[in-house]
Amino acid sequence: MENQSIFSSSSSSMEKVHFRTKVLSRHLNQETPILNAMHQSFPCLSYNPPELSEPSSVFDIKEMRKLMDGHNLEERDWCFGLMLKSKLFNPIKMGGKVFVFPDYNQCKEQQREITMRRIEYLVEHGSIEKWFTGKGPENELRNFARGECASIFDHSLGIKLGVHLFLCYKPPELSEPSAVFNIKEMRKLVDGHNLKEREWLFGLMLQSNLFNPIERGGKVFVSHDYSQSKEQQREITMRRIEYLLEHGVFKKWFTGKGPENEWRKLAFSDCVGVFDYSLSIKLGVHLTLWSQLREKLSILEA
């Protein structure tokens, strides 16, 4: 029995050796592929443009463009041609045609700089001519056509032109009579309640550097610094809450009762939310929900 088992194990091991030998020999002795065969096209990998196999389109491409663009075709062609002439728009020739596209591999600072240089180039070559002085629907359509060409090249360039040119106009209060409604009455309608408490809280924010006060045009503004990291924003948020707590913003937040106290808390939360939504959320989680929890616990104890 022992001899049979030994013989069977040795025969199986030899079969494995022969099998592996055959695999290696087939691998080593196979014919090298012909180079031309490697470059042959296969149906699943080849592509032929539709214009080579399909009949020509039944519609006129120029008429199709009139339908898509709508107006000022010559102005659009001139604007695109202006971009093709400058290296600021990264012209690249492919397949007998020239393409332009922005380089998104650049950092934000480089993209801002090249965007302003592109605007300067367009201004120097008359692309913004009669942008402010022209009047009538023809001028407006021409401005829209050139702005659309800039947006097709780069959306940020179109936005920059829209902000600096379309929105740059004489304020109506310089030429129109004063508003017929009272701003204070308008604020009562928008804010609704606790106007004095709101003014006090906004004034409290203006007095601290924690809220980034900035003076412009004779007025002081506060703004959140979104350039900070998440850890820095969390830290400054807690310091702002500590500052508001030290100056009595949350006085009677838990102990006060009645609708007047609730209105005051809502007014303070609204003011904080106007400055920074995340700060308002933090207050809502730590203060508003905690006060409601205390009320429920007091009810259960009673």
UniProtKB/TrEMBL annotation:
Entry's Gene Ontology BP terms: fatty acid beta-oxidation using acyl-CoA oxidase; lipid homeostasis
Q: Which domain of life is it from?
A: Eukaryota
InterPro entries from the xrefs? Answer: Acyl-CoA_oxidase
Q: Name one GO cellular component term.
A: peroxisome
Q: Name one GO molecular function term.
A: fatty acid binding
Output this protein's name: Acyl-coenzyme A oxidase 3, peroxisomal
Q: Which organism is it from?
A: Capsicum baccatum
- Lineage, uppermost ranks: Eukaryota, Viridiplantae, Streptophyta, Embryophyta, Tracheophyta
